[in-house]
Fold this sequence. Notes:
By secondary structure, the protein is α/β, with parallel strands linked by helices. The protein has 6 helices and 6 strands, in the order αααβαααβββββ.
Amino acid sequence: MSDQISNTTVAQGAMQMFLEEYCAVGIQALLFDTDDEVMSLHIDMHELLEFNHELAMLLLESPSKFLPLFNIACLAAQRSLKQQTTVSDSICTVKEDAQVRVTHLPNHPTLQRTRIPGSEDVGRLLSISGTVIRTGLVKMMETHRVYSCTKCRGVFSVNAEVEQYNYIPKP
């Protein structure tokens, strides 16, 4: 079975079956949402483990290969569900850029972090837990500033100096 599920076509079909069975409500929400932003479909890793343990393990081992397949399966599941509905096309639209997000990773030391991830964690699924102790206002980062001279009416654009922590000197 391991060789069979690692085939991308078979894996994508299994992913589509999982999405249609376990995430039908989320897919319907995607179809009927009128927002044009990038949409997300959250899948629960515990449900995926229940549906197909081998597929879940492949996703955990190689997320850079299998998350894009999940996105393609999400697109196929949206099209399949849209064909089953009798609502007009103006209300029900397939979101081409929908992204699958994995939630509720298993409680395993290789997947859990309580500190900032390092370079060894690149390309892996991680669950990061912590407590927010302080937040601040969101500040816009100035990359350049435009000055106008009151005497000569000249306009001067000054770029920020990245080496000086984005300091913008006056002309």
